[in-house]
Amino acid sequence: MSDDVKRETQIIEPPDSDTRREFLRRGSALTGAALMSLVPDAVRQGAWAAGSDAPEKTTVKIGFIPLTDCSSVVMASVMEFDRKYGIKIVPTKEASWASVRDKLVNGELDAAHVLYGLIYGVQMGIGGSKKDMAVLMNLNHNGQAVTLSKKLHEKGVKDGATLKALMAREKREYTFAHTFPTGTHAMWIYYWLAAHGIHPFTDVKTITVPPPQMVANMRVGNMDGYCVGEPWNNRAIVDGIGFTAETTQAIWKDHPEKTLGTTAEWVQKYPNTARAMTAAIIDAGRWIDASLSNRQKTAQTVADRSYVNTDPDVILARMLGRYDNGIGRKWDEPDYMKFFNDGIVTYPWLSDGMWFMTQHRRWGLLKEEPDYLAVAKKVNRIDIYRQAAAAAKASLPKSDFRTSKLIDGVVWDGKEPKKYAGSFKIKVA
Hints:
This protein is an alpha/beta fold and 429 residues long. The protein is 41% helix and 15% strand. It has helices spanning 17-27, 32-36, 41-47, 71-78, 97-106, 116-123, 150-153, 160-169, 184-195, 214-219, 232-238, 248-251, 264-269, 271-290, 292-302, 312-319, 350-362, 372-379, 382-392, 417-422, and strands spanning 59-64, 88-93, 111-115, 133-138, 144-149, 175-178, 205-208, 225-229, 242-247, 258-263, 322-324, 330-332, 404-405, 411-412. The chain has a 5-stranded mixed β-sheet with strand order 2-1-3-10-4, sandwiched between helices. Strands 7-6-8-5-9 form a 5-stranded mixed β-sheet, with helices on both faces. Strands 11-12 form a two-stranded antiparallel ribbon. The chain is globular. The N and C termini lie far apart (54 Å).
């Protein structure tokens, strides 16, 4: 079947005759979401697939990397939340973030589970690829970590402060890995190192490694530490080769992480599909967060070879907030990976997008000061999200900005981004 949907002219009528007359009387003056509000819930599902709100594409390919935080994309498909909105989501497994970037830019993917900072990197032309991009929603908060090798622990390292002390007394090249130069994991490990007085560009060497390859590379000694999403931190502990030095929620509580990203061109061409896709994934995120049993089912599902390809228990432990750092500490984490949290997670906050640009500027990836707010308003498609949230009956915040305090005590609120970017003692001049 062609991706282009033939729009149907048949009106789906409510069963009650009085409601039917009122619907027909007012219908000629209403279209889109306003028309949908008159339709009883029992018939609304079918209406999403017809009329002026019909998705322009019935099948959408969403790329993902094997990480726990792809869960809402996967479950939107597996649990068929997508059907409610007249689309079919097809998750497609990708090998690296570079591949995701390239396939988004050239149109091989409709959208992707993708690093927040990657979208902004392409928008700003960092690293060669430049194209107008779009963040439709945030997919998750929290749930990443900084993993250090057991060999470092044998020399007394257990956190950032003891790592700094070891580096001072034992001079050699220390290597740390992230998953993409402009991505979230690069920004978290840079921020964490700098918060402990370690310059991530002059004091250590940093390399890029795809998430599923982190554990294997640490096993053969290619790096001293890395930052990645789950389950590849817990996998290193289970395999006995690494330990968790810091969770990213300790760096920034409820930090933005992966987004539902695409190109601005795609949204312009398929706005109804963008709304439908976003609404389906909002529904999936809300379902995951609704109960422990839903999280257990999610972990079992995404552990499959088709998705993350690991043991379900490795995913489940940290998905439930049950942490073991691998060197003697166990705790229940209230700020574990979240996928909805009453809509706080999924909203594409302007301040979140702006923060990544401040860090790109801090580390010299952006050579000039951008218009932070203008770029964020262009990339973060709050208009599409609001439509999707209305369809999914998700609440909206009162502001497009939120305030957070990070691990070094510095507060980010979206105000004065230029001043904020230049305020750090450790940065690229």
